Amino acid sequence: MKEHRQSDTPSSNIKRNGPTPEYMETVHKLREKLLYGIQTSDRDLIAQYEKEGTLKFSDEQLNILNRVPNNKLRSYKNILLSHNTLYSYVAEKGRLSAWQCHFISEKYAIMIEHAETLAELDMIHSNMITEYSDPTIRKSKSDNVSIVEKAENYIEMNFSEDLSMEEMAGKLHVHPSHLMRAFKKEKGMTISHYRNLRRIKEAKQLILFSNLSMTEIAIMVGFSNPQYFSKLFKEEEGITPVEYKKKTKK
To answer: Quick check: 84 and 108 in contact, CB under 8 A?
Structure first.
């Protein structure tokens, strides 16, 4: 009599009346793998999770999308909001700054609430995992980095803050003139321009995945003057934020 080997995936442990304890244990292990990948910025580990693809919110055995009767969209939003908090927590344990965790968490909470389709939520979830696990926005473990790298890291973690060059230089313990010269020489642009590009990058994501007004988006990413935000956006993207929204929503 042939012996059938049971694969170590949730699908092999399903019973008609719901998931078995073995199924739930396997799902739990997959979730722990993902969370550890986010905490340690281990893209290979996250890729393994994505490849296995077994822990999907549409999983009929977990029945997550039916938690709110006749409203899969609301069910999905609720579970993503809770995962947003969880991802933020493990990312902070992995040296993502408290400010950055707060900003990213708030941003995705807005996006989740404004999403109109399950497909949008799928994309938001994928973006969440990518951003929370991004190693380039983590605090450096070494002091042996250049002043330009320190400036890049500082801008990444504080891009929406309205700090003067003197204040930023003070935070980095360097003279403002030296900081500006070194940054321009290495990056080919001023610190202000670099920071504005980072703000616009964030604004594009909010325009795409939220229904916030352009004024709200401008303020959220660090522009106190919405008109200046619109002008700068057009200079960089060739179209205004409103035109960008219309174009991407087609």
So the answer is: yes
